[in-house]
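ok, trying the design again with the full structure, not the truncated one.
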């Protein structure tokens, strides 16, 4: 999975990155592997919760239709619903805009024993904000540095950070919009504004490239995931997350003292119907 990780200080040009790639795996095999990874992740999350030491933050970014929601569903579908939280970052409220852009983000970061998934994130403040000139360049260009330092703070305080850019081609995006229109149960997802946004494709590409080039750090790396094939996208994201959490060296907490005495007591209770 290391092939998808952006090394620090890389000058990323997205035209050099595959969007339609399947790792030379058959789709059926890929889906079976994902099922296994889902179960492993379920067990790892339980251990993470029980141990109550590690914090894990997963950041998902990508253009409309790249599949942020669907990736969350497929990768975390087997995990105890109480075990992970998803934080969605939409257009900021007036109160949020009255503060610095990280103000609304920090309270959602994971505590000990938690996995939090950011569906969009503080990176919107160097993406949509930049593309639509919502603040001047002199303001957004300083944010790469703030973000690196913010993530360093989280990492120094024990958070493992994984960031995924779901990379789809322009043609695939058009096909996914069309599929939404063609399927009655998916039509609700279609928003004509999304086609307006598509007109800014090149500006978004430049903004994503700068984001990836400037904010992939040793403590919070970006992974660029080929996402034209949904099953391969899910498999790749799941593999990176499972590999990373597996290597955290977690252990179940030590046993309660006097366990044998408790066992004897319980056996006695069960044996005595009147107890
Ligand atoms: P989804 O995430 O499912 O696409 P929406 O359709 O509600 O949800 O889209 C959320 C919108 O909020 C996106 O257009 C995104 O660019 C916008 N947004 C998120 N963060 C910011 C921000 N900091 N400033 C401006 N717009 C933002």
């Amino acid at each position: 999975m290391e092939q998808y990780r952006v090394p620090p200080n890389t000058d990323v040009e997205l035209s050099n990155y595959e969007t339609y790639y399947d790792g030379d795996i058959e789709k059926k095999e890929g889906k079976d592997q994902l099922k296994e990874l889902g179960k492993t992740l379920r067990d790892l999350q339980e251990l993470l919760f029980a141990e109550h030491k590690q914090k894990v933050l997963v950041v998902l970014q990508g253009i409309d239709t790249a599949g942020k929601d669907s990736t969350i569903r497929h990768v975390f579908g087997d995990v105890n619903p109480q075990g992970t939280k998803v934080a969605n970052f939409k257009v900021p409220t007036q109160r949020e805009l009255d503060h610095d852009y990280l103000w609304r983000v920090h309270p959602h970061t994971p505590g000990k024993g938690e996995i939090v998934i950011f569906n969009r994130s503080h990176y919107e403040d160097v993406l949509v904000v930049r593309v639509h000139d919502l603040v001047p360049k002199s303001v957004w260009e300083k944010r790469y540095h703030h973000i690196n330092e913010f993530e360093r703070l989280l990492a120094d305080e024990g958070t493992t950070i994984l960031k995924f850019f779901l990379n789809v081609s322009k043609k695939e995006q058009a096909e996914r919009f069309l599929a939404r229109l063609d399927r009655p149960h998916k039509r609700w997802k279609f928003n004509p504004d999304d086609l307006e946004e598509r007109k800014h494709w090149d500006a978004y590409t430049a903004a994503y490239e700068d984001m990836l080039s400037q904010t992939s750090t040793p403590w919070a790396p970006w992974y660029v995931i080929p996402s034209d094939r949904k099953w391969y996208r899910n498999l790749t994201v799941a593999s990176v997350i499972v590999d990373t959490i597996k290597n955290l060296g977690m252990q179940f907490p030590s046993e309660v003292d006097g366990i044998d005495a408790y066992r004897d007591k319980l056996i006695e209770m069960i044996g005595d119907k009147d107890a």
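Keeping the full-length input from now on. The CA atoms of residues 110 and 193 lie 33 Å apart.
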